Amino acid sequence: MTATPTSSSRSYPAGGEAFPHKDLIGIAPLAPWQILYLLDEAEQWVKLNRSPLKHNDALAGLTIINAFFENSTRTLLSFEIAGKRLGADVVNMHAATSSVKKGETLIDTATTLNAMRADAIVIRHASSGATQLIADKVACPVLNAGDGQHEHPTQALLDALTLRDWLRSGACPVAKEEFVGLKIVICGDIRHSRVARSNILLLTALGAEVRVCAPPALMPYDIERMRVTPFTDFNQAIDGVDVVMMLRIQMERMSGPFIPSAREYRHLFGLTPERLKLAAPHALVMHPGPMNRGVEIDSSVADMLERSAITRQVEMGVALRMACLDVLTRRVRGVEGWGAPL
Amino acid sequence: MTATPTSSSRSYPAGGEAFPHKDLIGIAPLAPWQILYLLDEAEQWVKLNRSPLKHNDALAGLTIINAFFENSTRTLLSFEIAGKRLGADVVNMHAATSSVKKGETLIDTATTLNAMRADAIVIRHASSGATQLIADKVACPVLNAGDGQHEHPTQALLDALTLRDWLRSGACPVAKEEFVGLKIVICGDIRHSRVARSNILLLTALGAEVRVCAPPALMPYDIERMRVTPFTDFNQAIDGVDVVMMLRIQMERMSGPFIPSAREYRHLFGLTPERLKLAAPHALVMHPGPMNRGVEIDSSVADMLERSAITRQVEMGVALRMACLDVLTRRVRGVEGWGAPL
Amino acid sequence: MTATPTSSSRSYPAGGEAFPHKDLIGIAPLAPWQILYLLDEAEQWVKLNRSPLKHNDALAGLTIINAFFENSTRTLLSFEIAGKRLGADVVNMHAATSSVKKGETLIDTATTLNAMRADAIVIRHASSGATQLIADKVACPVLNAGDGQHEHPTQALLDALTLRDWLRSGACPVAKEEFVGLKIVICGDIRHSRVARSNILLLTALGAEVRVCAPPALMPYDIERMRVTPFTDFNQAIDGVDVVMMLRIQMERMSGPFIPSAREYRHLFGLTPERLKLAAPHALVMHPGPMNRGVEIDSSVADMLERSAITRQVEMGVALRMACLDVLTRRVRGVEGWGAPL
């Protein structure tokens, strides 16, 4: 690999080489220029999706299996639309009612999907590491759509795509195009959140300054090892940031040992209009959805036309997933090499 | 709009204008000529569906999302087949297992579907008005596949298509082609039925004489405001009618305050062969399905080859839904204007 | 029909005639040359599925409905991929949540699917005979994807395709290409297994020597009427066989009247490495999946690279189902007549 990343990490290797990963398991294995390459590739699909006839036959003839062992309407819809818009034959395996329930091992399921000659498998699973386990057993690319408390790489990538789009619009006086120097706070259940984990990895890799904020019981034990600044006081954490990224609080955490009550949580960690005023005046609001309105985020904030990027995140999600499916299936399609940098 | 409906309501506006509704929420907002236009448009799809290769690429490149918040195998199948036969990328959102369960608001779900750049959204929901709520929030056409006790417009339109096909066959000596003068009785749970509501609106708009028949507890309070004649005695209601439209009785109504028992219901409101003899000798039998055989309709009536239109209703359903999807997505496809009247 | 089967049953009727069955309900109605014809037809799809772009538009424009009244992830996936790879419009009817639950009869469901103008219906149902019942009511081909304890014909056909592929590889010194003289033991719940039933019918029709092995309580009462040799001692049954076909033990049989415990079952009827040594040294291991590892089959046997055909069975399944869908829909597509024998 003759990768020649510049200081801005925006150069690709000299021509003719393929994307160096078979799978997309997480952000951790990606070099900064690989992250940026996926974002650049997504731009064309953002444009396509905004055109009247939003279909391309790049993946025609390929079979994509969405194997969701954990329910997720949004992410499944997003991947399904991405695959179909690229012309692939897309099938969903609803694993909640699958042979897994009949006692089959995960590896046997993986071997089965491989034997059916899938060209890409998208996996969501409640166990951290399940996606890697499957990727090791199958010949085709595996895309992680969220595994346990490990990673959710397409979420972090779509968040970055949304952020970069905002930076390029000039709305942020601090950073223009570059993530270097951008101040971001991620607030919520940092400890159990794969969205937080993938976003921390991606944002720090691109040079952003990341703060995390959580109740003490929801802060990871090994937070010291991450290149972030931890806070337990949201008012301090949000002070002067350019981006506020809220996490969804799982219902099951909203009582018992972690959080006394939803009301208490909103009081201390909810994004209210008052609290948003502590951030920079141009600060962008993000949330991976689905939102608990009135808990981690107030409706008046979520619906701010100029400030909230929540709907744009969903839009970027389809485009980003199209890019990942396209790039990772190039080998099987005989379409090797990098496209020209945008 | 230079609409010039004739007495028979069968003329379209002078050329070049688009169908004047973004959505299909109900029959209520439709002018008679708009109803007839949708029926006319469906004719070509009836023909296509009867041909060996029943596929057309009119909607190729478009994304249709079927968001069913209430289970319905038939209607979902019908819409899914309609969309796929027209070449669209069709995805189903099984809302029973969706983020809605995670506490997401209906409007947030709608905004999400919109952000994924759907070109048409088909909604079924247990709450009256849910479809309108979503339609107001999204840019693309929304088709109501049944919302609470409000409307089920494609059912009424497919019933009308079935009826018109029968009238044109000459089987009815009273009316030929025209709905004017046609005597129809709708029998069942008029009060809670969106099928009844949409059919009453459509049939009276086209000039049919509509009688409704229900047990007193299942008759709407505001029946006086509808242009129908209410009956509580089915033997009187069915007397001399050209068409008998039976409604499905929901299991949950079959005990308790509404109906003493299924047996009692059949005795008083079931369509038995004896009771059918009270209708006109040529009378057509309709039912939206699925049937409770032996409750609201006897098997010997449901299976009458010459009299029962129940299977044809299913067939017309696919064609009619193809017409609605085609007409409502013309704007996004840049296919404006009316086709020549058939 | 001018069928002229030779001793090897490998000739087709003189040209120009269509496959003589509308449906594929079971192996029982098929003549040996019809079985072989389906296997021959599958070869081209095996090749296609191993190529980079595994798509063909043979069934473009056709509507295939997968109506699964019983959950089955693998078989549904296999049929769905088969249909989509052939370019058909494929829709799944998840009957677990269907109108059937609302009290609709199976025949009414069949009539509905027929009225929607399906070109092929794939049925899985918990009741023996349900598929035939539906096939009698609909105009289009019906494919049995497993009905009660009756038949599972595509499983037997894919097993035969896997076996023939192995025979042709020369790995079996006894039989080459031909099933005549091949010694096969089928072990497991012979009494309740549709897989066993279809395989016994197919393998004996092609001239293989079939042994069956089961605990006494899981042996069919009418085993004498089948052309097989029954055993209750697996060590005797497996002695010198060329092929060991294990059946999946249903969890619900693993206690109570049939089997004392999973551990006991493994001890007496599980395929352990020691027991496999009693078979011929070249013996092939088969299992329809999903496996209960450590119960009916040990992991060390299931994963033997040279001996286990389990993964290949899955691969052959997609190709075989493509062949069945292709052959049975030729009439509607106007593609009559036999292809040239391979």
TrEMBL record, chains A, B, C:
The lineage of its organism: Bacteria, Pseudomonadati, Pseudomonadota, Alphaproteobacteria, Sphingomonadales. Belongs to the aspartate/ornithine carbamoyltransferase superfamily. ATCase family. One of its GO terms (cellular component) is cytosol. This is Aspartate carbamoyltransferase. Its EC number is 2.1.3.2. One of its GO terms (molecular function) is aspartate carbamoyltransferase activity. The keyword Protein transport does not apply. The keyword Transferase applies. Residues 22-164 form the Aspartate/ornithine carbamoyltransferase carbamoyl-P binding domain. L-aspartate binds at K102, R194, R248. Heterododecamer (2C3:3R2) of six catalytic PyrB chains organized as two trimers (C3), and six regulatory PyrI chains organized as three dimers (R2). Keywords: Pyrimidine biosynthesis, Transferase. It comes from Croceicoccus mobilis. Signal peptide: none annotated. Pathway: Pyrimidine metabolism; UMP biosynthesis via de novo pathway; (S)-dihydroorotate from bicarbonate: step 2/3. Reversibly catalyzes the transfer of the carbamoyl group from carbamoyl phosphate (CP) to the N(epsilon) atom of ornithine (ORN) to produce L-citrulline. GO terms for biological process: 'de novo' pyrimidine nucleobase biosynthetic process; 'de novo' UMP biosynthetic process; amino acid metabolic process. The gene is pyrB. It comes from the Bacteria. It catalyses: carbamoyl phosphate + L-aspartate = N-carbamoyl-L-aspartate + phosphate + H(+). Carbamoyl phosphate binds at R74, T75, R124, H152, Q155, G289, P290. Residues 181-327 form the Aspartate/ornithine carbamoyltransferase Asp/Orn-binding domain.
